[in-house]
Amino acid sequence: MAAAATAATVLTDAQIAAIKADLVELYKKTPCMPIMVRLAWHDAGTFNVKDGTGGTNASIRFSEMAHAANSGLNIAIGLLEPIKAKHPEISNADLYQLASVVGIEFAGGPVIPFRSGRKDATAEECVEDGRLPDATKAADHLRDVFYRMGMNDQEIVALSGAHCLGAAHKDRSGFDGPWTEDKLKWGNDYFANIIAGGKEGLLLLPSDKALFEDEKMRPFVEKYAADLEAFNTDYVAAHTKLSELGFSA
Ligand code: TBV
Question: Where is the Plant heme peroxidase family profile domain (predicted)?
């Protein structure tokens, strides 16, 4: 077993089931599923497909946490600490991704496959600020960021549907409010909100609007607004890819 020193921990199905049960208990007490989805995305979304840097490795718990895009995500890591302490066998990187997929399922969304074995980065492996998207910018910026990860236009639109969960917070991003009527329930109503050009009491960021204004992205917005099954199918594929950026088991 010469490789053991560097090998990542692959968990058994029983170990994953036990951690999943504790995440479900957390969500019943504290419905923090949305911030877990954001945590997992911001850990993975730093990936650069050209040089393999960044990606799903829990580097977000070090200097990256101070990047403006990650404001508030220390709350998510704090909420996961008791689970990490009880189950030290899971890597932080795996725990962030598992918390996200269990959160989506708990909110009534699709079941997203989960593979364990991500390795935790050291503090030295953090990436520079600026790799995550800026909510005030339009489609070209979204493309720059997502193409760098190896994602395409369809995957950008599908992943943006995760805004059916949660809200923006004035003290974190400066924006305020939820994107949909029930921020704790999974659905495709985020896309209806975009098509409507915004609705009373609901948030629509410049980057959300950009999806509908872009010729190539608009057809996916229309498709997902009309067809929840199609959204879920494409979402699962794109999220699985996102959750494994930089991870090869
Ligand atoms: C929160 C940013 C999942 N996303 C969120 C906030 C902002 C953005 C609010 C943070 C806060 O104040 O608490 C400002 N929205 C953007 C940006 C763009 C945008 C930067 C585009 C350029 N988001 C997302 C993906 C995923 C999410 C790929 C998951 C797969 N984000 C997400 C959730 C929440 C935010 C679930 O990015 C709610 C968190 C594709 C909470 O409730 O705490 C949209 C995209 O459009 C860029």
Answer: 90-249
Cβ atoms of 217 and 211 closer than 8 Å? yes
Beta pairing partners, 177? 168
Q: Whole domain around residue 145: which residue ranges?
A: 139-238
Please report whether residue 40 resides in a domain. yes
pLDDT in tens, 33-82: 999 999 999 999 999 999 999 999 999 999 999 999 999 999 999 999 99
- Please tell me the total count of domains within the chain: 2
Phi and psi (nearest 5°) for 177? 110, 165
The model's pTM is: 0.95
Catalytic residue check, 42: yes
Residue from 33, 38, 186, 193 whose mutation best tests the ligand 1 pocket (most atoms within 8 A of CB): 38
Residue 167, SS3? strand
